[in-house]
Amino acid sequence: MDADKRRQLRDAFGAFMTGVTIVTSIDKQGQPIGFTANSFSSVSLDPALLLVSIDKRSANLENFTQCSHFAINILAEQQKEASTIFAQKNEDRFALIDWRWSASRVPLIDNSSAWFDCSLHQVVDAGDHAILIGKVEGFESNATAGLGYYRGAYFTPYQNAQSLIGGPQVVVSALIEFEGHAVMVRQNDGGYQLPSSTVEKRSVSETLGDLLQQLGINAHPGFVYSVYDDRQKHQQHIVFLCALPTDAGSLTPQLSAAEWFDMPTLARLPIKDPALQSMLGRFVKENAVGNYGIYYGDEHSGAIKQFAG
Asked: What is the pLDDT of residues 231-241, one digit of tens each?
């Protein structure tokens, strides 16, 4: 394939939005090594397998294809700098970041959105790359939003969502999901609504952070799940889908009116706001298949843009 065709093919591949990872291991002297990759995918849940590819021109090709263990570190949206460090030829990349050893003695990047400690299960030859298939021996998720990559540029789903906000009065809500349950707040009239707070002199992120702190639940915003205008009340509603880390700790909300409900019960709760009732109905269905969309519209109608959850 000539150079122009290769460039066109690379651009076409770049149309697929991915996350960004740092793949780490050790060399034959026991020193940490790593590279930035977005060619990562889950493979199987039983057994737990994942894959990532490495360029055959990499100086560390032999180290990774012959190692006993390696780790995948899914970068959080604040870790653009770490991604750049490991994509370039720096003398000592690990001196420029915070990291620690895993149980199998491979490096784990601090503050990553998630990490997977893997034994090398199989190496597959694939053209100008080698595919590393890892068996997951340990993992952890911090439930923070991941760093995205699209057409040669980074994007951050939570931070970029702030640009959607422009209503006269903004109401921020948290749709907190964990293991098939979600948090709702009981109202004085016996109905329920999502944990919500009005943006006043604070930013949206500060308002959401304060709301989660009041709930006393260690949840983190992943992405905007719904944006709609209530024209009768002159409000704009922004609903963030939030997740909990694997080591979430106590799940009991500090707010006495807040309760966890499983999906079947969530669909039957008395909710007076028809827009919220419709959104929760959609959420219950999407949660069952793990494929979420973003709703844009008003209290009566709108459009849903799908993306993989």
From this structure: 777 888 889 98
